[in-house]
Each structure stands twice: as C-alpha cells, then as structure tokens.
Design goal:
Elements: H1 2-17, H2 20-32, H3 38-61, H4 63-70, H5 83-204, H6 208-273, H7 276-325, H8 328-499, H9 502-553
Helix pairs in contact: 3-8, 5-8, 6-9
Length: about 550
C-alpha cells in the first residue's frame, strides 16, 4: 500500500509538472511586460466578463436555441429548464470552483518553488564563490593569528599543568595502588600458608588409608554388589524373554507355512474329489433362482394388487371430493368466504400496486425532467462557462493582474529589510550565542577537570586510610579474641559429644542397616526366582507346544 501511494503521488507531481515550461515562458514574458499591458489586459478581461454575462443571459432567456446548439453527441435538445435545474447545478459549480482553486494553488505553488530555485541558483553560485575565494582565506588568516595569540599559549598552559600537576598525581596514585596491592598479596599469602599448615596438621592426625579402605568396603557392599546382582539377573531375564518370543515367532511362522502348504491344498483336493465346490455352485444358483421367483411372486400377488387397490381408492376419493365440492351447500359456503375475503385482498393488492406505480412514475419524472436536464445543463453550458470564467477571472484577473504584480512590487521592499535583519541581527546574535556557549563550556570543562582530579585523589587517599585502619582493628581484635573463640568452640564440641551415647547410636544404626539390607536381598531373590520360573515355563510351553499343535492339525 505505501508503494502504491508513492507511485500515485509521483504520477500526480509528474502530471503537475507537464505545464511548467509553458508557465515559465508565460511568466517570463509576463514579468517583462507587466507594466506595459496592465491596462489593456484589464479592459480585455472586463469586456470578456461582460460578453460572458451577456451570453449567460441569452442562454437563460432562450434555452431551446442553446440546447439545439449545444447538443454535441446528443440529438435531444434541452427544453423547459426552470429555476430548480439551476439550483441543482449550483453545488456542482461550487465544487468545481473549489477543486480548481485547490488544484491550481498546488500547481502554481510547485511552479513558483521550482522557478524560485532556478532564479536563486545564480545567487547561490555567487555565495559559494564569495565563501571559497574571500571568506575561507580570511578565516584561515584569522585562524593563524588565533593560533599565535591564543591557541599556542593555551596548549602550553595545558601541557605545563599536565606535567606539573596531573602526571605527578597519576604517578603517586599508581605507587599507592601497587603498594596496597602488594600488602594485600602478602596478607593473602600468609593466610594461605596458615590454611595449608592447618590442613597438614589435620591430615596428620587421622589415618586416611584406613578411612579410604572403609569407604571402599562400604561402596562395594552398598553400591557395587547390588548393581552387579541387578545387572546379572536382568540379563538372564532378558535372555529368557528373548527365547520365549523367538519360540513364539518360530511357532507362528510354522503354523502359517503349514496352513498355506498343507491345509489349503488338502481342503482344495478334498473339495475336488467330493465335488463340494460343484454342489456349492449349484446351491448358489438354486438360491438365486429361488430369490428371483420369490420376488416375482411378491410383485405379482402382493404388490400389484395392493397398489391397484390403493390407486382405485385414491381415484374414488378424488371423485368423492369433487362431488362434495360441487354440492350446492358447499358452493354457497365457498361463495360466502370468497365474497368476504376477495374484495379486501384485491383492494390491498390494488392499493400497493397503485402506490408502487406512483413512486415509479415520480422517480421517472424526476430523472427525466429534473436530474437529466440539470446534468446536461451543467456539462454543456455551465461547465465550459465556469472554466472560461475561472481562467479569466481567478487566474488572469485575480492572480496575474493583482496578486502577482502586488507581490512583485512588495518583494523589492521586503528583500532589503530581510537581508539587513539577517546580516545585522540574526548572524551577530548566532555568533554571540555560539561564542558565549563555547566560552562557558571551555571554562566549565577546565574547572570540572581540576575538581575531578582533586576529588579522585582525596577519595583514593581516604579509602586507603580507612581500609588500613579497618584492617588493623580487625586483625588486633581477632588476635585478642582468638583464644576465647577457640575455647568456646572446643567447649561446645565437648558438650555435644558428651550429650549423647554415640557408640550405642552407631551400633544400633549399623544393625538396622544390616537387617534392612538382608531383608531387601531376600525379597529381591524371591521375586527374581518367581519371575524366572514363570518365564522358564512359558519358554518351555512355547518350545514344546509347536510340534503338538502341528500334530493335532495334521
């Protein structure tokens, strides 16, 4: 949809630009001869307007003759035009004038913009030439002077500040950073060494070889032995399942082969030798003949008499109904009902048909006597007159004789004030604002840089001081409280050990785990043996039942 809109707008602007060369040529000639033929054009337009008014009056006074003259492509003249026709034509004329005004406004605005651009190209060329040949060399000379008097001293001041203030601060902060990092590294190294020594002492106080052996025994008893037991028995059960399924498949295959190779040929030979197939065929034919004779008998002895009797009854019923309707009493009843209903129905139908015919006649008369003459009047008389009047009055008289000459006369007076306001007010104001903003930004940037350096230095010094202070306080507190903390932990551990009989708890837990393990092992063996017996008997049945079934079938 956006592409279609873009294509439509492009086609519309291309169509608008088709008349630009003629408009440009006319505008060029008009600008050169505006002052000479102003009066002649004015008199000509007035005479043409008077002639148009006279023609319009003649058309109103003598519509038949004009209708006969304007019937191009239509042989029927316009007759009996009234005020209603002109009232109907008025909205179309207003819409036409409004549409033409909008379209011409857009068209002439585009033409005037393009023409203004073409006229401004020489001025732009002169401006570029002035900028390249005069303004740029002048600015280059001013830039050289600015560098000598302002830029070079500023660079020297910045470099001096960087060498004597910024660089020493960076070096000092770097040294402080690396010194702090070295101290932190020494502290971490000493703490790591203490941890290693404590771990070694802890490992030397225990028999790790015995601990590893005990853990291996526990893993073998709890994990490895049950896993091996489960895997071995699962493999054996899978082998039994495979054997049983294989025996089933072999027995089914043997049964199918025996049926196809032995049973079906034997049955076929038996049927041939005993003429069973012939007797079956004869039986089917006999059954077909019996069904045919039965259907014929039903049709002849049941359906035909029944249908005949029903049709006879139906005909007699119709005759009775006709005789009943021809009765004098029934006729009187029906006549009364007809006299009561028929006039109202007929009257209603006649009324509706009359209303419908009146509506059709009214619509036909409106179309023939009002709308169609108004359309012909607008298309053959009003539209050409409107086009001529619009072209002469709006375009030539309004735009070319009054609006554009007024603009041409006012434009030279506006050009000088606008140029003066641009050169003397706008450009200095913009330069002043730019200079003010640039100076403020430079000053603020310089001050912020110095303040930021000072704040960062202070923040680093304060953080280093408080870090060292907190580290020293924490270290001294830990050294003072370490014996007390270790004694508290040792006492808590002793109280926890003395609170319970850990040996009895250990013995009871081991005994419970052993009993649970034995019970699980026994139950698992029983379940496995039951499944194994069931699968073994199933496999034997599948393997031994194949020959017996074949013998029974044989």
């Amino acid at each position: 949809m956006p592409r279609i809109t873009l294509i439509a707008l492009t086609a519309f602007f291309v169509w608008l630009l088709t008349g630009y060369p003629q408009w440009k040529q006319q505008r060029t000639t008009t600008t050169t001869t505006t002052h000479t033929n102003h009066d002649s054009l004015k008199t000509k337009i007035s005479t043409e307007i008077a002639s148009l008014k006279q023609e319009a009056g003649q058309q109103v006074n003598n519509p038949e003759a004009n209708g006969q003259q304007d019937t191009q492509g239509d042989n029927r003249p316009i007759k009996d035009l009234s005020l209603a026709h002109y009232i109907l034509v008025t909205p179309f004329a207003a819409l036409y004038i409004l549409g033409r005004v909008i379209l011409d406004t857009v068209r002439y605005s585009v033409y005037f913009v393009i023409w203004s651009c073409e006229r401004s190209i020489p001025h732009i060329d002169d401006w570029l030439f002035d900028k390249v040949t005069i303004w740029l060399p002048k600015k280059y000379s001013e830039l050289e002077q600015w560098w000598i008097y302002k830029g070079k001293p500023s660079v020297a001041a910045y470099s001096h500040h960087f060498q004597h203030a910024t660089l020493p601060a960076i070096i000092k902060n770097t040294e402080t950073f690396f010194e702090t990092g070295y101290r932190i590294g020494c502290t971490v190294s000493s703490a790591t060494q203490d941890f290693i020594d404590a771990w070694k002492r802890f490992t030397q106080r225990h028999d790790w070889h015995q601990l590893t052996t005990d853990l291996g025994n526990v893993a073998y008893i709890v994990i490895w032995a049950p896993l091996v037991w489960v895997v071995i028995r699962s493999v054996r059960l899978a082998n039994l399942v495979y054997s049983g399924l294989r025996s089933v498949a072999i027995s089914v295959q043997g049964d199918v082969v025996w049926i196809c190779s032995t049973l079906i040929p034997a049955v076929y030979d038996y049927m041939i030798t005993t003429r069973l197939a012939q007797w079956i065929y004869i039986g089917i034919l006999s059954a077909g003949k019996g069904m045919r004779s039965t259907c014929l008998a039903l049709h002849q002895y049941v359906l035909v008499p029944t249908l005949g009797r029903f049709l006879i009854w139906l005909v007699k019923s119709i005759d009775q109904a006709i005789l009943l309707l021809q009765d004098h009493t029934i006729q009187q009843k029906l006549h009364r009902i007809y006299k009561w209903m028929a006039p109202k129905i007929v009257w209603t139908i006649l009324e509706f048909s009359g209303v419908f015919l009146e509506i059709v006649k009214w619509a036909h008369s409106v179309c023939i006597q009002l709308l169609y003459p108004a359309y012909r009047l607008f298309m053959k008389r009003v539209l050409p007159s409107l086009a001529i009047a619009y072209q002469k009055i709006v375009v030539h008289w309004g735009y070319e004789l009054h609006l554009y000459p007024a603009w041409v006369k006012v434009y030279p007076y506006l050009n000088t004030p606008l140029l003066w306001a641009y050169t003397n007010v706008t450009v200095p104001l913009l330069n002043g604002v730019y200079t003010f903003v640039a100076s403020i930004s430079n000053h603020v940037t310089r001050l912020l840089l110095v303040k930021l350096q000072i704040i960062l230095n202070k923040a680093i010094e304060i953080s280093i001081f408080y870090s060292q202070w907190s580290y020293r306080i924490t270290q001294s507190w830990l050294l003072k409280q370490a014996p007390v903390l270790s004694e508290i932990i040792q006492n808590s551990y002793q109280v926890f050990l003395n609170a319970c009989d850990w040996d009895s708890l250990k013995q009871d837990t081991v005994a419970l785990c052993t009993d649970l393990y034995d019970w699980i092992q026994v139950q698992s063996n029983l379940v496995y043996l039951s499944i194994e017996r069931s699968l073994s008997s199933w496999v034997k049945e599948q393997g031994g039942g194949e020959g017996g079934e074949k013998q029974k079938l044989a």
